[in-house]
Specification:
Number of strands: 6
Strand order of the largest sheet: 3-2-1-4-5-6
Shape: globular
Number of helices: 10
Order of helices and strands: EHHHHHEHEHHEHEEH
Helix content: 40-55%
Radius of gyration: 16 Å
Largest sheet: 6 strands, parallel
Length: 211
């Protein structure tokens, strides 16, 4: 028996980084940040084809009664993004056996900045701007597979929210949900093969899958 996966792809801003705290701090409170982020997600998942990330963030702020200029402040606060506990150590161990990459819904420049905050070098960084579409459209995941040069069957995807499962199911990617803050899956979301609030559980899950 051999290990099933040759690479692991990650959602970046929710599965690996605590972006929630940055949105909350920029908005001025956790309730305001949560409402703003939820509206941004609604716009993002509904638009499909790429629209400038910063414009969607500003529109979301305006839609929920916040100043659209907060989008610029969020970008300035990007440098304070921090990985969830145990993320860097877990990915360092994974990197001994797997190639690693991220697929993220943001601009190319912010995607590179955010990926650098994880503290681990990635083989592939795919943003919605590069793919021309926002997740869960299948094209960002497909672009990552093309850059890896691997079929979906040999790659594991680690979601940050259950919305990713709509896209990974279309592409045929096995999916593990790092549900760090206990999000509720939207109606109709395909179930993941594994789910945990602890990123460390990913190690056992990935290594146990064999062909």
């Amino acid at each position: 028996m051999a290990q099933k996966y040759q690479a692991v792809l990650f959602d970046l801003l929710t599965a690996l980084l605590d972006s929630w705290s940055v949105w909350n701090r920029t908005a001025g409170s956790e309730p305001a940040g949560r409402v703003w982020r939820a509206e941004y997600l609604r716009l993002t998942y509904g638009c499909g084809a790429y629209q400038p990330y910063e414009e969607l963030v500003a529109q979301a702020a305006q839609n929920v009664g916040l100043a659209p200029q907060l989008a610029q402040q969020l970008e300035r606060n990007w440098h304070s993004l921090a990985p969830w506990p145990d993320v860097a150590a877990t990915l360092t161990r994974l990197k001994q056996s797997y190639r690693l990459g991220v697929v993220t819904n943001c601009s190319a420049s912010l995607g590179r900045l955010a990926a650098a905050r994880v503290g681990v070098e990635f083989d592939v960084i795919v943003t919605s701007e590069q793919a021309g579409f926002y997740k869960p459209d299948p094209r960002p995941y497909q672009l990552a597979l093309e850059q890896l040069g691997l079929p979906a069957q040999r790659v594991l995807f680690v979601a940050g929210s259950a919305y990713d499962m709509f896209g990974t199911a279309q592409v045929g990617l096995d999916t593990f949900w790092h549900n760090r803050i206990g999000l509720v899956a939207p109606t109709g979301a395909p179930p993941p093969l594994g789910e945990s609030r602890k990123i460390t559980d990913l190690l056992e899950f990935a290594n146990a899958r064999q062909i």
